Amino acid sequence: MIHARGLAATFVTGKGKNQREVRAVAGVDLDIAEGEVVGFLGPNGAGKTTTLRMLTTLLRPTAGTATVNGFDVVTESVQVRRSIGYVSQMGSTFSQALAGDEVADHGQLYGMSRRDAVARGKELFSQLQLDGLWDRMPKNMSGGQRRRLDIAMGLIHDPTLVFLDEPTTGLDPQARANLWEHIAKLRTERGATVFLTTHYLDEADALSDRIIIIDNGVIVAADTPENLKSQVSGDLVHLEFTAAGPVAHAAQRLEQVGATEIEAAGFGVRARLRGSAKVIPGLLRDLESAGDTLDSIEIMRPTLDDVFLTLTGRSLRDAEAGADTEEVSDEIPA
Ligand SMILES: Nc1ncnc2c1ncn2[C@@H]1O[C@H](COP(=O)(O)OP(=O)(O)OP(=O)(O)O)[C@@H](O)[C@H]1O
């Protein structure tokens, strides 16, 4: 479905002495099979949107090659565009038109007859829980409804491959969860392949068969969420005692059972521990028989943020905080 080799995009920004090159995407290889839901994850400015724009033919690669649905993104851009659905980060519904008309117009742009476009649009409105909103202006819809309308526009011509750029950004948790359901159904009910960018770790985890992590324009990992998380060195275990006394003993016991990254502070100790479900009961018995009174215990399974931290040495949230926030021009090549 999608194959890319050495895909790269470099932008030149500024003028004269201030001119500089930004390597937004620095040689990306991708292979995405039919029916996969792939989450493309990375901090702000990592190169997600730029990669997506190259794959959807909105931006010409500086180097490398890519085929989408068997068509070359540079020499067969028209065929690529016709065969995909694309829902951009900004959404596409700004006009004063009624929602249903916009969706049907969009279908006609793809060569559908008005009749087919309206019929298909109505079907999509019903599937995306937009019933009754055909004659409403998008500006009078809620954020979640507008995002689902964007998705209806992206699906009107029945593409088998759908690109979604940050589909749930700005939505409240309930609207996000609702959109997740619809995205999951794209595959289960329509057999679509979905390539979505996000910086929500929970979203990537919940929706994707496979996750591709990009950082500074380079892919740093590509695997199933489970495999990625199993690379992280164990669960995070946090033991809290009623006094400082037992902390040193607990840290020692944790070390003996193979824990790493042991940190003791105040009345507590935290560490990474592989197979914690098997090890913890014995450890607790030992502590109890030594008279160490435990106040609380918390065991946290590794998250995709831990994966990002292991791979890059930074937390995804810190990476976001330090992201390049420079204003950029929007170049769409001829
Ligand atoms: N048209 C442009 N001109 C100059 N620089 C650009 C342009 N588009 C993107 N960039 C730069 O390329 C880098 C990657 O940007 P991109 O939008 O692909 O990141 P992203 O991972 O999608 O980020 P976000 O999560 O914030 O959408 C950033 O440093 C950005 O400033």
UniProtKB/TrEMBL annotation:
InterPro entries: AAA+_ATPase, ABC_transporter-like_ATP-bd, ABC_transporter-like_CS, ABC_transporter_ATP-binding, P-loop_NTPase
Topology of this chain in the membrane: Peripheral membrane protein
Keyword line: Antibiotic resistance, ATP-binding, Nucleotide-binding, Transport
SUPFAM superfamilies with a match to the protein in the record: P-loop containing nucleoside triphosphate hydrolases
PANTHER family from the UniProt entry: ABC TRANSPORTER ATP-BINDING PROTEIN, ABC TRANSPORTER ATP-BINDING PROTEIN NATA
Similarity field: Belongs to the ABC transporter superfamily.
Keyword field contains Nucleotide-binding: yes
Protein known as: ABC transporter
Provenance organism: Gordonia phthalatica
A Pfam family hit: ABC_tran
Gene Ontology molecular function: ATP binding; ATP hydrolysis activity
Subcellular localization: Cell membrane
